[in-house]
Amino acid sequence: MWLEVAVFRIKICGVTRVADARLAEEGGADAIGLNFYAASPRCLDADQARRLASTVGHHVCRVGVFVDADPDHVRRLADQFHLDWIQLHGNEPPEALAAFAGRNLIKSFRLEQEGTAAIANYLERCRDRGVLPAAVLIDGHAPGHYGGTGQPADWPALRPPRPWLLGRPLILAGGLRPDNVQRAVRDVEPAAVDVASGVESSPGIKDPAQLARFIANAKSAWPAGGNAPR
Question: What is the DSSP string of 22-75?
């Protein structure tokens, strides 16, 4: 069975320090991203992941980020660190999503030159197999990288209506910063925003002032008391 759940709204990804996790929670973020991709400068070891997962309260979602990882390994870490969401950020084929049935799953895509057509095709294949993810994350495209580069996605291509998403909530990532997140929310109308490098002083090290500004600006962009449209 695939879950139909409300997605978080503001995710601070690539958190590597307890102090940054606490700042994210105190500022009002409702999700932190824990990176388990070995080639990333934000990758966590087991001790770091355990400390970070136990630092934030239960109202803050713990999102594990994986790239083309073995499903058994992903499920084991998800259980070990009590992850609320699993984010697949690689080239996982639609049939691979079946391994995560019953879990909150985000499938990430890098918006490349062919635009949303390739994403639509992928999601249609997921639907045909009964494995649509709970949410879709769209990142900017930087050749040779899986994310965290600060490269923005093509915002005009992501504006509503979005029938190609097949009703999945859109999480917007890529190139978001404190000074543009309000415009991103208003222009694209995502269900959530996701930032890593846009609030960092160096990879994995969050800048407290930038982090606080990003969260405050993102929160102010949504209609009071309501979610942004999907």
Answer: HHHHHHT--EEEEE--TTSTTB--HHHHHHHHHHS-TTSEEEEEESS--HHHHH
| Catalytic residue ranges | 13, 139
Tell me the domains of the chain and their CATH numbers: 10-221 (3.20.20.70)
Query: Which residues lie across from 31 on neighbouring strands?
Result: 11, 61
What are the mean pLDDT values of the chain's consecutive 10-residue runs (230 residues total)? 73 97 96 96 96 96 97 97 96 96 95 83 96 94 51 87 96 95 95 95 95 96 60
Cα separation of 94 and 30, whole Å? Answer: 28
Task: Give the Cα-Cα-Cα angle 222, 109, 124 (nearest 5 degrees).
Answer: 100
